[in-house]
Amino acid sequence: MMPLVESLLRLLVWLLLAPLLPGLINQVKAWVAGRRGPPALQLYYDLARLWRKGVVLSHLASPGFLAGPAVGWVAITGAALLLPLGPGGGGVSFRGDVLLFVYLLAVARFCTAWAALETGSAFEGMGAAREVSFAVLAEVALITAILTLSVQSGSVTLATMLAPAAGAGAVLLAAGLFAVLLAENCRVPFDDPNTHLELTMIHEVMVLDHSGPPLAVVLHGAAMKLMIFAVLLVQAVLPIGTLSPVVAAGWLAGGVLGVTLGVGLVESLLARFAFRRVPLLLTTAFLLCLFALLLAWKGGGA
Amino acid sequence: MSGATVNLLVGVAMGLNLLALASSRVPSIIRAVAVQGMVLGLIPLLMETHFDWLVATVAVVTMAVKGFLIPALLGRAMRSAHIDREIEPFIGYVPSLLLGAAGTIAAVAGARALPLLPEHTGTLFVPGALASLLTGFVLLIGRAKAISQVCGYLILENGIYLFGLLLINSTPLLVESGILLDLTVGVFVIGIIVDRIQRAFDSLDTRKLTVLRE
Predict the structure, then answer these.
(1) Nearest CA-CA distance, residue B52 and chain A, Å
(2) DSSP for A26-80?
(3) How far apart are CA A252 and CA A247, in angstroms?
(4) pLDDT tier at A260 (50, 70, 90 boundaries)?
(5) Which of A21, A241, B35, B206 has the most neighbouring CB atoms within 10 Å?
(6) Model's pTM, two decimal places?
(7) Looking at the DSSP assignment, which residues form a beta bridge with residue B25?
(8) What does the DSSP 8-state code read for residue B210?
(9) In sequence order, which ranges of chain A are alpha helices (DSSP H)?
């Protein structure tokens, strides 16, 4: 009985806390700009409103249009359950679960792009092409970061990989992972989540034709992805696994909050980059992770 | 302890190499070169176990010249020529960044194979010097604007300086000060040349210099 309750609790933490992060980012942006801004709980209201609405379906859309967001959301939730939550450990943990984690994130992206193509609109095809071509570079950086963690802990299980502090390359790894977080979640230097200008959108284009519950699922999945990356970043850098449970939970919560505030500040202080600059920035993120990997390797060998 | 600090500084210099390769704006390349010169100027101070007036003077003068004087000269040349952006480099930013990173990794790997003195094996001097040389070459070859090429030359010189630090106890400081003087005069002259090129060709693109005209 206990494991079931524990899993439910873990699921509830992920499902209920995730929509708070975009709200906090918007609060930071509003504070920096001197506006009052939408309430921090705005995304919860939006999700509830969307859930009650009907769905508009294109004549061209096959059942894949509805299946895409659903499968994507399930994949992201699965990835969230694999990721250990500080002292709570992972919901499911086995040797090599990190590979499943990476692939679940890839499946989620594939499903979003697939559903976007289902609408038959050239506009959404363009968005899917952009998203997928940037993801190629971001994924390389993410996998290099995961290799770094794996080399320095000598393990391929997320729970043991994330427990110790990042070694000599902690700063490099943190910077690289933060850039990946911004790119994967379509945050400002890469993409502007607020814009609806056709030339500049990446992620927003893909979900333009979704409405009602499928859109709510897409939005909730995006919020959960942001939380996944924030938790991953914090646990990769801080020695969460070596602290006592209460302190570890405090550090984890504080770290995720810090990352969220950081995203908000980056978003307020930076303009989004021109498209041709994005590959350069992602290559930089990859190189940061690569040098962290080399440091971990050399440190482990010596 | 001081060995770790020196290695960290050399590591920062190697990071600045990559920053210079990735930046498209001329002011940020100049800034990267200036910071790199200052970081490298700090190293002789940390290497000495006992305080030496001569070494300290040379270090301070190096930092002042590389950190302030040369960037000021370059900045003036840049403003008088009204350019601050490299439009069409010969080698794009992503390829040059990847080249620089590959060069850095190869330098670190290759330096282990070299028969170094035992006191130099743990340091990053040789890899840092080789990586800076490579970065300087990539900038010299890959950029079209004269000022960016000068920055490449300065990074090249920083690499040679880093190599020279291995011999700090046996080279007379006169050599070091002579190099510094040459460098300053060189940049000063290049500043004037840049101005002349700008007046004659209305551009600092060195591609146009290959065309002969009356």
Answers:
(1) 32
(2) HHHHHHHHT---S-TTHHHHHHHHHHHS-----TT--THHHHHHHHHHHHHHHHH
(3) 9
(4) very high
(5) A21
(6) 0.86
(7) B85
(8) G
(9) 2-17, 20-33, 42-52, 64-82, 97-118, 122-153, 158-162, 170-184, 203-206, 212-237, 245-269, 278-301
